[in-house]
Amino acid sequence: YLDSGLNAVKNYLHRLFIPVASHLVSQQSESPSFIDAKNLFQQWALANFASNPEYAIIDVTGPPHAREFTAEVRVNNLLYGTGKGKRKQDATKAAAEDALKRCQLQG
């Protein structure tokens, strides 16, 4: 930046990152599993209710070194799924997966 200016840095970064970004986008379009359950459930909730899902940790069990979290996901205050995991993120993902399964079963 100091030697060549902002445009030189911009061009350099574009050469590095545009191919990576293009590759990621092409992977996403080829593989639907690239999108996780939370994103899919959010898309479903927005399409059907114009509302985002809300996740909450409803229970924490186990000793401090081996916690297990239980999460639930709601849309418009209606429960759609629950899930458990060793991390909060895993529990919310499991809740979204449960919600998607329930939505598919109900049609």
Structure description:
The chain has 107 residues and is of the alpha+beta class. Helix content is 53%, strand content 22%. The chain has three helices and three strands, in the order ααβββα. It has helices at residues 6-30, 37-49, 88-106, and strands spanning 54-61, 68-75, 78-85. A three-stranded antiparallel beta sheet has the order 1-2-3, with helices on one face. Helix 2 (37-49) packs across helix 3 (88-106). The longest helix is centred in the first third of the chain and has 25 residues, at 6-30. The termini are far apart.
Quick take:
By secondary structure, the protein is an alpha+beta fold. Helix content is 53%, strand content 22%.
